Amino acid sequence: MKRAKTLLLPLALLFSVNAVNAQVSIEQLYTKGFDSRLGLGSFLEVALALGATHKIILEPNADFFAYNAQYISLYPMLTGYRHNFSRMGCGWYVQPMAGYTFGNTTIIKKDAAGEVVTNAAGDTLNRPGAGFTAGLSVGYAFRWFPAFSLELRYERVFVSGGPAMGLLQLRYVYTITVNRLRPGK
Predict the structure, then answer these.
(1) Rounded to whole angstroms, how far apart are CA atoms 80 and 106?
(2) What is the pLDDT, as a whole number, of residue 179?
(3) Domain 16-175 has CATH 2.40.160.20
(4) Tens digits of per-residue pLDDT, 14-54?
């Protein structure tokens, strides 16, 4: 009986989800020690609609940036709140996000003097790519069928033990499930 009660909340949340959106993005990464290059991202946005104008969002993401022999791969797990300015559920919206980013890099770690950092065995260390993440999106949800949105987002990853990373993203968001609260309905 106790096990059934433990499963009740996650199942209730799963069945109350109103929309699942697939997203792809083109991204620009800004961080010290890595030439600023375009990257690609893929996302899954799970939304719990609280009416036509408010949504609680959960977003597991994957971002990848490569340049020559270096790469940065990031895996943010973000939660947020979307406020749509139209009562129809379409039109302009803002979406603040926060969470944690897991990731790794092949960027060589350097100390304050610019010297390469090594471990006790003499192996070169790479910079960390994980930390608290915060961001803000501005987007437009189109009413057409199939429903989709275009979104511009800035995220900042506050890396512990390394320089912060900034991501500027242009996102295409496509609804892949039938919503109970469809925009414009």
Answers:
(1) 30
(2) 47
(3) yes
(4) 555 566 677 778 888 888 777 767 888 888 888 887 877 88
Identify the three-state secondary structure at position 143: coil
Location of structure tokens 């909340």: 9
Domain ranges within the chain, ordered by starting residue: 16-175
Q: Is the pTM for the entire model greater than 0.90? A: no
Q: Cα torsion for 49, 50, 54, 59, to the nearest 10°?
A: -40
List C-alpha distances in Å: 60 to 2, 33, 167.
29, 26, 16
pLDDT score at 17: 59
Which residues, in sequence order, are CB contacts of 5 under 8 Å at separation 6+?
none
State whether the Cα torsion 131-136-142-143 is positive or negative. positive
| CA R_g for the chain | 19
CA gap 136, 94 in Å, rounded = 7
Instruction: Annotate 33-46 with b (16+ C-beta within 10 A) or e (fewer).
Output: ebeeeebebebebb
pLDDT digits (tens, 9 = 90+) for 113-159: 778 887 888 777 777 788 999 999 999 988 776 678 889 999 999 98
